[in-house]
Amino acid sequence: MKLKAKLLLGGCGIFIAAFALCAGLLLWGSVSGVNAALMDSADAEREMLQSHLQSSFASADEELSLLAQRSRAAYIFRNLSPREEDAWYVLSCGSDVIQNNFGFAILEGSGSSIISIADEWYSISCADCELGAQVYAVGVVRRVTGTITTLWQRVLLSAAGCLILLFCAIFAIGILLRRTLRPIEALQEGARAIADGDYGKRLSVQTRDELGALSESFNAMAAAVQTHLERVETTAREQALLLRALAHEIRTPVTAISGYAHALRHARLSEEEQQEAAEFLERESLRLERLTTKLTELITLEKATLHSEMIAAETFALELSQLLTPLAEQRGILLDVTAQGELTGDKDLLVSVLINLFDNACKAGAKEIHISIAPDALTVTDNGKGIPAAALPHVTQVFYQADTARHEGFGLGLALCQRIAALHNGALCIESTEGQGTTVQLKI
Amino acid sequence: MQRIFVVEDQESIRKMLLLHLRLAGYEGTAAEDGGEAQQRLNAGEQFDLALVDVMLPVLDGFGLLPLFRERGIPVIFLTARGDLEAKLEGLTGGAEDYIVKPFEMAELLVRMEKVLLRTAPAQQICVGDVVIDLVARTVSVSGMLQDLRPMEFDLLLIFVRNRNVALSRDRLLNEVWGLSYEGGTRTVDVHVAQLRKKTGLDIISVPKIGYRLEV
């Protein structure tokens, strides 16, 4: 059963019960009030008649026989009782009815009541009355059909009014419930939409109650889910791209290796050809090895913890020169390393950054490379061919190579540098002018 | 001899392809990038088939495709891009075939042969002083017509199309007699002996593998 139906049924049930009880009590009160008033007036009339009867009778001679007394009482009673159309007066003594112009025999004992005889209503008041030596019963009957009918008409009218009011109230409760529960329906729809994959769905509940707060929380949750999902999707996309790039990087050398190996194994080659095949085999397997090393570095870097230490810039520069100078001399490059102050960081990782940047500068065809080591930044400046402005935003992506015609590297170096920079809470800034050179700065 | 144009920017693969083409009896020639390939095509060079890498500097393989199509040169793409989109783009663009790296040379050669059979069937093949007429299915040695049986002729074709490459007895049996042939590999030995006698070609036996035609 729906919440709305439950609330409506429960609420209306309780409401109807309370309303019916109230209305019943009120109506019953008014009916019994009118009845009491009718009986009171009948009683008053009877008492008046009785007192008149007693006072008239008392003045008579007491020596009368019982029969004479009875006749006298009947006489007085007849004279006293008014001639009215809707009123009847009854006098009896024991089982002997002295006067009864009312069509029906009257009860014994005393008291007052309202009775219904043949579609007519009568109020009856009876009492014993001592006259002389005998006890008489005096009764007054009044027809009250008009009053009672009016009363019941009013009761029915009120009941009908109550019923109409009740329906109006139920209708109002229904509308109120609908209004109140609309946000819940919206919430349900929203939740279903999200479950069906529409993660952009938001609710527009503007009430200032708990439901408003709930829908706000719901929206916040949906936004969080959406953001998270987008992040997950982006990561998945990046990983797919990475895998594709990796597959490409591996396929080329593998094709060459298998091709030469096949030729060496199955074909008769000249000395020269054999030599060439062996050279290519070596070159391509070394390439694969380098790729594996770089990838391993990149992967281990993901989980790496930083071994931060104070590094004296000058000794750092000295070690670096010892490492790089032979390489620079080999390629006829002028290398210049300057240093000042002390810096904090992971020495091995920083060396790896500088070697990568040096390597990039060499590949860019630089003739002069300047490395500067300062407390807040490591800078490598070269006069190589530079990076095209369009490629600049992508150079730190894994496997990205601005110069697709060359196949020396893998496009992993700058990605590696960026990771190391991030580990140091720093940033990698690359400035380049095509044809003039590149400056890469690792800010710590 | 059929001329094959290799457009591949990676030296190792380019040289490897040329080596295998030479071994298989084709005349291979290569360009390093899309630009060079374009120049040579515009200069009027004609080829029977082109093996083209998709990712090339200057002008990529898809860009080169119309140039080859204009000249009626069939193209087989060689690429590391194995995704369906690239394959569809290549094949709907008019390439004859699409081979994803890493590939086996033997597979590439078979596919090349199929394409060449469709597009530019060779009239004759010459190996030294042996001339094989593919249309008339005749073989002449030093101008003298030799009488070869059908199976011997097919076997000879496989040898000349895989010059200097060792071929296993099973492969020979499959390609000439078909997979359903019940006879043993001895049949191959008998036919090879006949071929040696009739053509005088240098078909040597390779231990543990099979035979190789040396040229």
Which descriptors would you attach to this protein?
heterodimer, A: 444 residues, alpha+beta, five-stranded mixed β-sheet, 8 helices, 12 strands, B: 215 residues, alpha/beta, five-stranded parallel β-sheet, four-stranded antiparallel β-sheet, elongated
Structure description:
The complex is a heterodimer of chains A (444) and B (215). With 444 residues, chain A is of the alpha+beta class. In chain A, 58% of the residues lie in helices and 18% in strands. In chain A, helix 4 (210-266) runs antiparallel to helix 5 (271-302) and helix 5 runs parallel beside helix 8 (413-423). Chain A starts with a helix and ends with a strand. In chain A, 25% of the residues are buried. The model of chain A has no long low-confidence stretch (mean pLDDT 84). Chain B has a five-stranded parallel β-sheet, sandwiched between helices. In chain B, strand 3, helix 3 and strand 4 form a beta-alpha-beta unit. The two termini of chain B are 15 Å apart. The chains are: A alpha+beta (444), B alpha/beta (215). Chain A binds chain B through residues 244, 247-248, 251-256, 258-260, 262-263, 265-269, 273, 276-277, 280, 283-284, 404-405, 407, and chain B through 9-10, 12-13, 15-17, 19-20, 23, 33, 55, 57-58, 80-83, 100-106, 164-166, 209, 212, 214.
Uncertain runs of chain B are: none
Structural class of chain A: alpha+beta
Shape of chain B: elongated
**Secondary-structure element pattern of chain A, one letter each:** HHEEEEEHHHEHEEHEEHEE
> Structural class of the helix and strand makeup of chain B?
alpha/beta
Number of helices in the DSSP assignment of chain B: 8
Strand order of the largest sheet of chain A: 2-1-5-4-3
Query: Overall 3D geometry of chain A?
Result: rod-shaped
Q: Which chains share the greatest interface? A: A-B, 28 and 31 residues
Oligomer: heterodimer
Strand content of chain B: 15-25%
- For the report, how would you describe the main beta sheet of chain B? 5 strands, parallel
Rounded mean pLDDT of chain A is: 84
Query: Helicity level of chain A, as a percent range?
Result: 55-70%
Poorly predicted spans of chain A: none
Radius of gyration of chain B: 19 Å
